[in-house]
């Protein structure tokens, strides 16, 4: 992909700040970044958390691998290079949401540590909360669940570069939260996340 360089381009400040928007919403914008194998439970947990947050009166928005790849990132595949660009763009999109004061629930396999660290760095630079949520289940559990039948296809060689089968997954070293979705109920996972958000003053 041809890289476009931003030259002679300057940030233009407005007269309304993130803080103004956060006061309006009575919450702090933040990104909760769910990472883990396909079938680990990222989307299921994010959907349940979104519902719980909205019920409590908090504005949040989910960004999800499959959905984003059907739209803004439809030109990207699953090579390491394309996954890096996928995650970089989603990192920037997440930041835009955080700047509006919204709580973003980003669920992506995001198998490479360097790609996730870049998104963390992007948030840190703008003094934004970034919580890495590692949805950690053994490959055998994810494969047994196989909610979309993709592991079966990967084992049959019909899908190449499938994370966990013939492509790597680099586990987070210091995630803010670990969810072992094979040992925890969905309700407990949501409770743990709400507690963590409350502790950090996000909600
Ligand atoms: N090769 C390969 N490896 C992993 N996953 C694959 C692949 N091909 C298709 N899929 C489906 O795409 C979803 C992962 O997209 P992501 O954007 O989250 O991937 S990544 O973060 O860029 O690695 C993933 O969604 P989830 O199952 O929700 O994780 C799969 O449904
Ligand atoms: N405690 C749990 N948390 C999350 N998912 C669970 C849990 N227990 C069972 N599951 C099941 O595991 C599967 C996870 O699929 P999904 O959320 O699509 O994973 P991912 O988004 O990581 O690919 C779903 O079928 C879900 O019902």
UniProtKB/TrEMBL annotation:
Pathway: Sulfur metabolism; hydrogen sulfide biosynthesis; sulfite from sulfate: step 2/3. The keyword Glycoprotein does not apply. NCBIfam families: apsK (TIGR00455), PRK03846.1 (NF003013). ATP binds at residues 36-43. Belongs to the APS kinase family. Its EC number is 2.7.1.25. It catalyses: adenosine 5'-phosphosulfate + ATP = 3'-phosphoadenylyl sulfate + ADP + H(+). The active site is at residue 110. Residues 28-179 form the APS kinase domain. Keywords: ATP-binding, Kinase, Nucleotide-binding, Phosphoprotein, Transferase. GO terms for molecular function: adenylylsulfate kinase activity; ATP binding. The keyword Transmembrane helix does not apply. Catalyzes the synthesis of activated sulfate. This is Adenylyl-sulfate kinase. GO terms for biological process: hydrogen sulfide biosynthetic process; sulfate assimilation.
């Amino acid at each position: 992909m041809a890289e476009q360089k931003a030259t002679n381009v300057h940030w233009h400040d407005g007269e309304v700040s993130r803080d103004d928007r956060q006061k309006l919403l009575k919450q702090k914008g933040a990104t909760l970044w769910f990472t883990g194998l396909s079938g680990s439970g990222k989307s299921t947990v994010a959907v349940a958390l979104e519902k719980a947050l909205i019920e409590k009166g908090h504005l949040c928005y989910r960004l999800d691998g499959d959905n984003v790849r059907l739209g803004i990132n439809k030109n990207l595949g699953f090579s390491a290079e394309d996954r890096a660009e996928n995650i970089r763009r989603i990192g920037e999109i997440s930041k835009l949401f955080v700047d509006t004061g919204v709580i973003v629930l980003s669920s992506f396999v995001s198998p490479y540590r360097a790609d996730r660290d870049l998104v963390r760095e992007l948030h840190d630079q703008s003094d934004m909360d970034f919580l890495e949520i590692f949805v950690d289940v053994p490959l055998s559990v994810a494969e047994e669940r196989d909610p979309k039948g993709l592991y079966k296809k990967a084992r049959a060689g019909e899908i190449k570069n499938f994370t966990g089968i013939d492509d790597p997954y680099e586990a987070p070293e210091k995630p803010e939260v670990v969810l072992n979705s094979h040992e925890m109920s969905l309700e407990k996972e949501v409770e743990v996340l709400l507690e963590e958000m409350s502790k950090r003053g996000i909600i």
